[in-house]
Amino acid sequence: MDTTHRKSVFRATLLTAIVSIGMMDLHVPSMPAMAKYFDAPDTQIQYTITLFLLGFSLFHLVLGPLSDRYGRRPILIISLMTGLVGSVMCMLAYSIPFLLWGRFIAGIGCGGASLLARAMMKDAFSGNDLSKYSSFIGIVISITIGLAPAVGGFAQQYGHWRLNFGIASILLLSVFIYIFFRFPETHQRPNAYALHFRTLLSNFQKPLKSRHFWGYTMCSGIAFSGIMTYATAAPFILQVQLGVSAAVFGLLSIFIAIAQSGGFSLNIRYLPILGLNRAILVGLGFMLLAGLFLIIIASTGFISVPSIILAIVFYATGAGFIFSNAYAGAFDNFGHIAGVCAAVYGLLQMGLGSLTTFIVAKLKEGSSLDIGFVFTGLAILGAILYHFLIHRAPKKIAPGW
After folding, report:
1. In CATH, what number does 3-182+205-393 get?
2. Around 356, how many Cα atoms within 13 Å sit in the side-chain half-sphere?
3. Distance in angstroms (rounded) separating the CA atoms of residues 109 and 104
4. 199, containing H or E segment
5. What is the pLDDT of residues 198-235, one digit of tens each?
6. Among candidates 79, 7, 21, which has minimal Cα distance to 350?
7. By the 8 A CB rule, do 288 and 380 touch?
8. Is the pLDDT assigned to residue 401 strictly greater than 70?
9. Quick one: 201 exposed, middle or buried, by C-beta within 10 A (0-12, 13-18, 19+)?
């Protein structure tokens, strides 16, 4: 693939990633206001994240093989349209069930878009180049994760919670128009047998039988789960319990973006020295420090807005080390089935995130101490999985050691 085509893929991947990830937490500062508007328990509003992630993950298994068979472009276009429909449903929602259905449908569309973005990157790049450009995209995604709640906070403070979903709809429509008229196909050799049952079974089994694929994917899912834990619980802790306004809460999310971007930047700089695996260990170390710090300050009564933000900054920095390296490691041996591999990767990563947010929403306290225990537990689980699935895997498929 020539340089011009690669730049086009990189640009399209950036736009797709921004809109699909931005939809995830744009409305987060509005969650307390939405609970009040619908006169609903906090838990039901927190399910807007859980169901989005559920839709985001479940249809990966369908859309991945479809993209291997028919190409990335048509499936990406359909995914963006699905996300747009779900976003409009949320904007017009008149009840909690209608809102949750809208979030689920939006998750399906945005999940498909995110899946295709990963597959397109694998079509265009490989090896260290894949990790390098994934880190650049990760930086932009980190900025999006911070800016989306910031925009959502001001939309809530000076407008209405429906405005957030209106903004999301406009962004989805804009990217759809760009992809439809300007983006070429990246999958030059579609697999005519990709949808045959035996082929599907064989292709899905390949990554699922790989210890290092499981290890890298679960490390990525664990890092992501912590970020979503914060998004699920923090609006009610910071706004309701500590009295922070929606606009200020949104602006605080920028610290997360800066931290995660810092993690990606440090990863780019030190990747040649550390290798993929040691960089993941560094990320898990940051995550563990975040959890232990939050447990200590919550247990001693020194909880405050700055202390919570400092903890999530540590966690997000660690996540920045993990995401691009786990992605590159998981895909390393599966370039010929990138669509299926991206589907399984997304299912496991987002599925774990959905399960974690469901558990967090069910916690009665929803306190800073709960978040601290979740962060710590995730980091320890990641270290255990790393040891058994990556470190002890054959050296030839465990780069960095």
Report:
1. 1.20.1250.20
2. 29
3. 9
4. helix 197-208
5. 877 888 898 999 999 999 999 999 999 999 999 999 99
6. 21
7. yes
8. no
9. exposed
